[in-house]
Amino acid sequence: MPETKTHTALICLRRKSGAGILDCQKALEEAGGDEEKALEILRKKGLADAAKRSSRPTCEGLIHSYIHAGGKVGALLELNCETDFVARTEEFRNLAKELALQIVGAAPRWVRKEEVPPQVIEGEKEIYRQQALHEKKPPPTLERIVEGKLAKFFQQFCLLEQPSIRDASGKKSVLALIQEAASKLGENITVRRFLRYQLGGDV
């Protein structure tokens, strides 16, 4: 296949699949230059590639700050990726902006549910149990009710579990938003930490 045609097919495949440039190149080589076959290969490998990406170290990235209009609330975020090249892309910077807006607007307390202290979880569970008992819920359903309310607690206070404020349907989580960007950029992307500041409040 001529060099120009190969380059055009590569760009088209990247746009269609959202996969990384190297993944697209390998898929095209495997498909003998057939763009549709290459797209099928990428789709079949999608989940496996995502799983492999999630275990790769993220030592690059950026610190992004956002101060809301009026200067009374703001956020500082560390977003990591694998290479400095991706960290400088517009897509990665836009993701950092989206996440900072999420932090300011939805006020999460932790990045992920695994970071919630055990004593906080046990405290919440006990509150939910007492509420269920007060409402005279039948004992067999008690733990199911507690776990359901705990899941809602995580959705409210853990950044990755929160529904994206940009998704009108409320069905797309922040984690899904990050995974979409990771698939498009072809690298593992992680939120390492954040701080949310509010005038007169605790950090």
Keywords summarizing the entry:
Tetrahydropterin Synthase, Chain A, 3 strands, GTP Cyclohydrolase I, Chain A, domain 1, 203 residues, 3-stranded antiparallel sheet, Helicase, Ruva Protein, domain 3, 3 domains, 13% strand, alpha+beta
Write up this protein.
With 203 residues, the protein is of the alpha+beta class. The chain folds into three domains: 3-54, Orthogonal Bundle (Helicase, Ruva Protein, domain 3), CATH 1.10.8.10; 60-112 and 158-198, Elongation factor Ts, dimerisation domain (Tetrahydropterin Synthase, Chain A), CATH 3.30.479.20; 117-156, Orthogonal Bundle (GTP Cyclohydrolase I, Chain A, domain 1). It has eight helices and three strands, in the order αααββαααααβ. The protein has helices at residues 3-17, 21-30, 35-54, 84-87, 90-106, 118-134, 139-157, 174-185; strands spanning 60-67, 73-81, 190-198. Strands 1-2-3 form a three-stranded antiparallel sheet. Strand 1 and strand 2 (73-81) form a beta hairpin. Helix 1 (3-17) crosses helix 2 (21-30), helix 1 (3-17) packs across helix 3 and helix 2 crosses helix 3 (35-54). The chain is globular, with a radius of gyration of 21 Å. The termini are far apart. The relative contact order is 0.15.
